[in-house]
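re the bet — no i am not wrong, look at it urself. input seq straight from the record:
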Amino acid sequence: MAGTLTNLQLRHFVIDARVAIITSNFSPERTGIGQVTTEFARFLSAEGIEVRVATAFPYYPEWRIYPGYEGSLWREEHLGDIRVLRAWHHASVAPGAFSRIAHELTLCLLSIPNIVRALRGAGTAYIVSPDLSLAWVASVIAGAMRKRRVLFVQDVMPDAAIEMGMLRNRTLIAISRRIARALYATSDEIYTLGNGMRRRIGVATAAPDKIRIVPNTIDPSELAPTPRETNRFRKQFVADGKFAVVHAGNMGEKQNLPLLLRAAGLLRDETDIKFFVIGDGAVKDAFLRQKAEMALDNVTHLGFLDRELLPEMLSGADVFLVSQVPKAVDIVVPSKLVTAMGAGAMIVAACAPSSETGEIVSVSGGGITTSPEDEAELVRGILSIREGKVDTARCRRSARDYAVKHFSRREVYGPIADSLRAAAGEMTAPRRADAVSASRGAALD
């Protein structure tokens, strides 16, 4: 996969060091796009760049507005030096098509004043997609205010929703495709996560040369692997002698959790193997119902763990499972994969061989891949690791080495920050001694 942008590639695009980020997801959301966008904002801020964020009341992945945000339509907060402008929106647990439309419409309408406030004085607008509707509104406003527009594509929409069966209405599909093409056409630059996503977007734009690969990132120091004898995740959750298969992060349609349950069913007599599903999301209730119906005592569900346990969970798992539906080929790169690699996890990726996930695992040598449709093949992969037939030490080392080389936050975002400061004539050292620690974070999707 391609690397990062260079100063030469970026410099002629940037006109001001102050930036606005428009996104539907941001801290305190602990997984997915919200975490990734927060890392980007924190990095730029730590580099001395003024950042304003226009975003939603936090709601993901539970699809429930977080406690403490009731009773108002707008709210202003600060995350360090980052000014965060929030707007209310509709959110419904286990959202269907109507709920998602209501979410986007209310967020678009109520975000307009915040978008204007965030853009005022900024030279560049980083517009995160999805949501498509919010991205389109932000792009129109940024264009009217003559701001440079950078579209940050985390999921290729509406393709992802269509191929996942989440969007079936022909009229809505047609409208969504027109919005996506308009966004691609009017953006001065497009960032996306991998080669497959770049090719997919390139088909829908007349200027594929403006698409850049900017992958999700890690802080290598935060994700340093923890030896098993001092690993707090294992001490707290994994009984002695047990083999832990862990899935963590968002529990959504893309994560293919029924595959995990079917594999657990085949392994119910292997009493030393325990599955841990850690996180929350739109399909959590359905997952728990299916688990109960199958009487799977070897599967434990836990809510999100404390942030400090993240690297210990990833490195402490005997297997870290990254599962995707078969159709997730070139529409998304799961942030959990990048994070798990950074922590030196033993990765088993149940994904399409031609997917971005499969390509990264194969090229890095950082794990093994199995079919996203065949639970028996997944079981064989898990058993091969338990029985010592896989050189797990080599896989873990290769995964971390690859992640440090290709996904380090300094390597990926550094050229962007350098270019913004250079354009403003502020090529100075970061303004705070703790700049690196302030930009720490990792995401699970």
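see?? The first strand starts at residue 19 and ends at 22. told u. also Residues 97-119 form the longest helix (23 residues). so pay up
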